[in-house]
Structures are given as C-alpha cells and as structure tokens.
Amino acid sequence: MKYQDRFHQTDLSRRDVFRFTGIAGMAVAGSALLAACATPGAPGLAASAGSSPLLMDHLIANVPAFSSADRAFKAAAKALSASASFTSYDGDMQKALAQSLTFPSLSVAGVHSYLVADASIERYAKSLTDKKIAYQNLSNRLPWFAPTDPKFNGYFTGNVGGPFADEAYVVTKILLERGGGKGDLILLGGPKGGLSETARRFGAMKAISEYPNVKLVANAYTDWDTTKAQTALETLLPSNPNVKFVLCLNDGVGLGALAALKAARNSTALICGMDGDPGFLKLMSTEDRIVATSAGLIAFSGVLAAVRLFDHINGVQTNPLESFINTDSVIIDTPEAAAALLDLTGEDKPVLWDATKMSRHLNGDNWIVQHRCVIPNPAVSEWGPQGVNPTPQPAGWAWPESYQKALDSDGGLDALNALWDKKFKDPYASVREKAIVKKGALGALNA
To answer: Among residues 285, 355, 384, which one has the least CA distance to residue 3?
Structure first.
C-alpha cells in the first residue's frame, strides 16, 4: 500500500456533526485478506484503490489522557493512509448515542471510543455494527459480555484495557511508602461505576488495607475531569487540613488536585497519578510532591485502536480471543524516569509506536507490537468471586461459539500470549533503568 500524505484532522463540534451529515464517503469493497496467524473472525471490507477510510475518535475533550490518545490515533491513521476525525460527547451519554447515529451519513468506516457509562456499550456498539461500521472500545468491559456476540455482525473488534487494579495497587503503595506509611488520605476517583475506575479503586483499596496507620478520610468521584477534581478537593480540604496523601486515580485528576493544593497553600500533601500523560510527567520534574504515576500510555491504545480498525477494514480476521486485550503499565516513580518517558512520548515528539509495523494487513505474520500486551480470559482474571469485578456469572451464560472454540483450541490463550510476547519489542529501556520499580504493573496483585 502506498502511504499518502493526506490526513484529515477535523475536530467536530455538536453542530458540525449535524452540518456534515450527508457528506459522501469513501467507498469500500469486499475482498478479504487473512493475516498469518489469524483465525476466522470478523468480516472486513478492503479499502478501494485511492480511498482513505475515515476513522472516528469519539472521546471527551479536555481530558489529558484522551488528548494524548487522540493525538496518537490521528498520527497512526495518517501513517496508515487513513483519515481521522475527533468529536467530543462531553461525557453526556445521550449526546454520544445521538452522535453515533450520524456516523453512517459521514461515511465513517471505524470508530474508537471510551464511554462514561459502561451500561451503554451494547446499545452504542450495536448502532454502529448494524451499519457495518467497525468498532474498537477503550476500557469499557462489561462483565459477562462478549464483543464476539453474533449480534454485532463481526464488526465489534474488541476492548483494550489496562492493568487498572494492578497499577493502582503498585502506585498507591509507592505513595504511602514515600509518606512513611501513616497519615490521612483523600481519594479522588473517576466516573462512579466505570470499569477502569472500579478496578483502580479495587487496587488502591487493597494497598491502603495493608497500611493500618493510613486513614481514608474523604472520597470523591470526578468523571476524570480536571476541573471537577480541583473543585472536589477544594471542597474537602477545609475539613481535612492535615491530609498527607491525595490519591488520584488518573493524571488529569492529579492536575486538578495539585491546583487545589496550591490554591489552599498546602505544601505538604503528596500526590500520585495514573496514565503517564505528558503534562503530568513534566510536572514530576519540578513538583516533589508528585511521587509516581503508572504509564499505561493510553496514547499507545490510540495507535492500537487505529491499527485494529484499519486491519479489519482491510479484511484481516483476528483470533476471537483478541477481542480482549490488556496493556501493561510502566511504573514512573522518579523525576528521572518521568523525564526519560517524556523524551519518548512528549507532545513535541513523534508518536513512539509505529502503526505501520503493527499492522497485519501491511506485514502479514511479520507484525510487531511496541508495548507489552496480554490476552486475558476476563471470566478468570476479572469477573466473578476471584476477580476485580465480583459480578457472578448469570445462569445459563456461555461464551459465543467462536470465542469458546478459540479457548478450547490447541494451546488456546497460552499459545496466543506466547505469540504476542514474541512480537513485543520494548521501547522503554531508558525509562526502566531510571525507575525504582522496573517491572511493569501486570500481575502485581498476584505476585
């Protein structure tokens, strides 16, 4: 495929979405190309000669993690000779659903989104897949729910999530150890009931339980919104003037917490974040109170989403087990490690991960992955009595036939993960050598 320079980067407002309704789109044709090592799965549509399939990034504006993801998603689309647009639903699920209904008329071929309300994922996904639009989800992983369900017509390419509980456990322990293992703690979370929030809260609370001299004195949910986080902490500080730890479940929340502490002239409370956002990493070199973050690098998830959508559109059929992917987190617990990661992933740097090398459509079985990923079985690692989400398996529930067949195949998950390990090319050596905790977060709760 010839890489083209054209790249449409339209930021669509709500009015723009409706203004552009009816735009003629790019044609797609139906020749299937099976990548080596892939098994039969979703039907794809190969882009016709000269076309540039439109990929939509449907996230929330003004959330640092999503800004990083969108930048990387657009860069990956450009590298793959696709076009990309962004539209924000502002955390309003009714708006998100309404906007998704306009995507067919915009000739959108693939969508990547994070949904504030996990419970909306089925309706949202079906509105896209019914129109043969490929869909890749970020983080929303409902219990006992499968993207491979036949109702999605093979167009739900899957979920990508992080080691949310593991990374929160590790980072919280770093925070508490740095403060001597005792004192008052305020916890600032994200959207109440959201999958990533629930998992991070699980890991954080497990870590807190190991420190009997740490007292959780207040808690707030912030929807991952920096301004809401600042307002929440400003409200909580007057009644908790001696707070020693502000545990923030993502970096954007950490930025809001830092602003609130500065406004209150509090110079002693320690902060952590999670996500490895460039703005937060930059502050770690000047703010001693910021002790750690976990760089799951949602920006990489943006690249992976663009690649998976592009490959699907071009006929690549992946193993059904790959409908669930967990990405690792690099632990950043020193200013030097933060600077090293910023040197790799800062906003003034080229996007670190090469989408063209990750694409199976372009490389066949010579594809690589530039961030450690694990293919989980959520029914074992995440759901039920042993998982982060204890929701019991519904009576009579079963995996879709294609997923169960892949689970039962020779080697199953073990063989697939061995393949992904073989394909992993680690770009973070300069970061790990400057961190205290050099291993990633995946598996920390089971260590």
So the answer is: 355
The per-residue pLDDT for range 399-427, each reduced to its tens digit, is: 999 999 999 998 999 999 999 999 999 99
Reading the block at residue 173, the tokens are 């322990």
Please count the CA atoms within 13 angstroms of the CA of 43 that sit on its side-chain side.
10
Helices (H), 245-354: 251-263, 278-284, 298-313, 335-345
Task: Band the pLDDT of 382: cuts 50, 70, 90.
Answer: confident
Alpha carbons 375 and 35: distance in angstroms, whole number: 18
Amino acid symbol at 218: A
pLDDT single digits (tens) 6-23? 223 333 333 333 333 332
Sheet order of strands, 134-138 included: 9-12, 83-88, 54-59, 108-113, 134-138, 156-161, 324-327, 373-374
pLDDT tops 60 at residue 50 = no
Nearest to 258 by CA among 248, 295, 32, 165: 248
> How far is Cα 149 from Cα 204, in angstroms, rounded to an integer?
33
CA 385 to centroid of chain Cα atoms: 25
